[in-house]
Specification:
elongated, transmembrane, membrane, transmembrane helix, 2 domains, about 70% helix, about 240 residues
Length: about 240
């Protein structure tokens, strides 16, 4: 190899091919596509330092084999787990605000109101929880519909954004208050300790739903820019 000759570099067309390659191998989120495309580009250029005559596609396939039989799936799963943890950390951060003044006054009032409902007719209590569940499901549907429209317009999916607007799979918790109510009234009498504990638990679930469905989606852009500095440029 001629040491004076500049090493080959990945062209714009080849970089697009790397992005397309990641999509062909079931990487749907743009941030992961960019990360993997950059990794592959650097690895291919390192190969060209040793052998400048190596074909691009041959180098690409050789690098892809390093990922093993499962391809990119292991990396995707690890990134998914990492950003899911980040999502729940954000969720918990906003939830804790309801445990400090002045928000705590509203939280305490809500616990007291649910406590009273638990003492009243089961039908009133179940109707209340059912109403909360219906409102939450409608909001979740609107979030997903709006997000899917945005993705269609931009052509990009970002993993953290996907988690935020799907509420991190939090929708399954919408049914928990109803499930609790079905067990509460199987007993004719509740202990003095059980009633306030259930009131606190139910309010906590409702507050988590409020954070997941309203607060965090409204602050999504802030957290996306913190995670992906290039987000504002690409989404313009």
């Amino acid at each position: 190899m001629n040491k004076n000759k500049a090493p080959k570099k990945i062209t714009a067309a080849q970089m697009e091919r790397l992005f397309r390659f990641t999509r062909e191998h079931f990487v749907e989120h743009y941030d992961l596509q960019a990360e993997l495309a950059d990794h592959l580009a650097n690895a291919i250029e390192e190969r060209w330092v040793q052998n400048s005559g190596l074909d691009f596609e041959e180098a690409l396939q050789a690098e892809f084999k390093k990922f093993g039989v499962f391809g990119f799936s292991d990396i995707v799963e690890k990134r998914q787990n990492a950003l899911t943890k980040k999502y729940y950390k954000l969720l918990w951060g906003y939830f804790k605000n309801f445990l400090h003044l002045p928000q705590f006054l509203g939280t305490f009032t809500a616990v007291a109101a649910v406590y009273v409902l638990l003492q009243l007719s089961p039908y009133i209590y179940i109707l209340f929880l059912f109403s909360i569940m219906v409102v939450s499901i409608i909001k979740l549907f609107k979030l997903k519909k709006g997000y899917n429209k945005k993705v269609k317009q931009s052509g990009h999916r970002w993993l953290l954004e996907d988690i935020i607007f799907s509420c991190g799979g939090f929708g399954s918790m919408l049914y928990l208050p109803i499930q609790l109510s079905l067990h509460i009234y199987e007993e004719r009498e509740m202990s003095a300790l059980l009633t306030p504990v259930l009131a606190i638990l139910i309010v906590a679930i409702i507050l988590f739903e409020y954070v997941a469905l309203y607060i965090l989606p409204n602050k999504a852009q802030k957290h996306l820019l913190e995670t992906y500095p290039e987000y504002s440029i690409i989404e313009e």
